[in-house]
Amino acid sequence: MRSGLHRHPVCDGLLSSPWYFRPAVALSPSILVLLLGEGMSVLKREPPLLHREGPLNDPELLLTPPLPILSIDKIFSLPGHAPTGHSSSSSAEPTTRGRWSFIDCFLRLSEQFMVVGLLQRLSEKLPRVVHRLSEMMKPQVVFVLGGPGAGKGTQCERIVKNYSYTHLSAGDLLREERSRTGSEFGQLIDTYIKEGKIAMEETMKSDEKKFRFLIDGFPRNQDNLQGWNNVMDGKADVKFVLFFDCSSEVCIDRCLERGKSSGRTDDNRESLEKRIQTYLQSTRPIIEQYEQQGKVHKIDASRSVDEVFADVKNILENQG
Ligand SMILES: Nc1ncnc2c1ncn2[C@@H]1O[C@H](COP(=O)(O)OP(=O)(O)O)[C@@H](O)[C@H]1O
């Protein structure tokens, strides 16, 4: 009986260890493999459990690199098993020991079946799991919108100090690019704005550790939104829009005040009135579109910086 077991691939396979944590360990690389696009072939393989020939320790079945196979001889020498020094060719093998070993193997076999069953069930669910994982791994984006001077930059600065967000200011990115000497894009910038090709995608990709983004002053018109959808659809998740709402007069006053020290040439009354008009005509409809999707958190931005930030905090903490 025992020599039969010794040759039995099921038992040889079953005797490799450790029993319980291996499948858990094995799953992570397989998920990785799946994420890397290797497909489901590994998990979908029919487990050759009851094959009489060939090793049960098929690495593909166990989803890990080959593990040491313990032969029946070795298992007999493991603590809690029959004593060592037992020769497989021994003809004087005690029946009790043989039967005990068989039961032991049988129990382990049923455990292995349970594990394989679990793996099979998991393999059926894996596409969904992988889909959820990839959804969870997408960068999360919060658009920050409002008129010029509504306090978007000021509030983003506070958010970045208190929460793990990366701030991308559309205006700053564009101003930076325009002013960069030798910028290939200086000439093209208006076309880029129009087509929504602002360097968001590259900027967001540049550091994979960055996961949550505040994109301030974008999308400011239908073209931007279209461009975003074309380039970023499926690659990032727009969680919601923070809309800093405040009257045009307050916006203009704040920007004129800012202009005294910011050095921004566009912070003058004439330019501001035009920007306010553009904001009302082009950006408000974008906010309304997101409002219809239930994604807008409107904040009264005419209050003090602290009061506004208290609302922002509430929103961020309730949205996770
Ligand atoms: N809640 C506020 N109350 C008063 N002044 C503010 C407030 N928020 C911002 N400011 C000031 O208004 C100016 C414009 O703010 P900023 O954050 O740059 O606006 P935006 O980024 O929306 O154009 C800045 O000088 C800033 O210090």
From TrEMBL:
GO terms for cellular component: cytoplasm; nucleus. ATP binds at residues 149-154, 258, 303. InterPro entries: Adenylat/UMP-CMP_kin, Adenylat_kinase_CS, P-loop_NTPase, UMP_CMP_kinase. This is UMP-CMP kinase. A ribonucleoside 5'-phosphate binds at residues 175, 217-220, 264, 275. It comes from Danionella cerebrum. CDD domains: ADK (cd01428). It catalyses: a ribonucleoside 5'-phosphate + ATP = a ribonucleoside 5'-diphosphate + ADP; dCDP + GTP = dCTP + GDP; a 2'-deoxyribonucleoside 5'-diphosphate + ATP = a 2'-deoxyribonucleoside 5'-triphosphate + ADP; UDP + ATP = UTP + ADP. The gene is CMPK1. CMP binds at residue 224. Its EC number is 2.7.4.14, 2.7.4.6. It comes from the Eukaryota. NCBIfam families: UMP_CMP_kin_fam. The lineage of its organism: Eukaryota, Metazoa, Chordata, Craniata, Vertebrata. Consists of three domains, a large central CORE domain and two small peripheral domains, NMPbind and LID, which undergo movements during catalysis. The LID domain closes over the site of phosphoryl transfer upon ATP binding. Assembling and dissambling the active center during each catalytic cycle provides an effective means to prevent ATP hydrolysis.
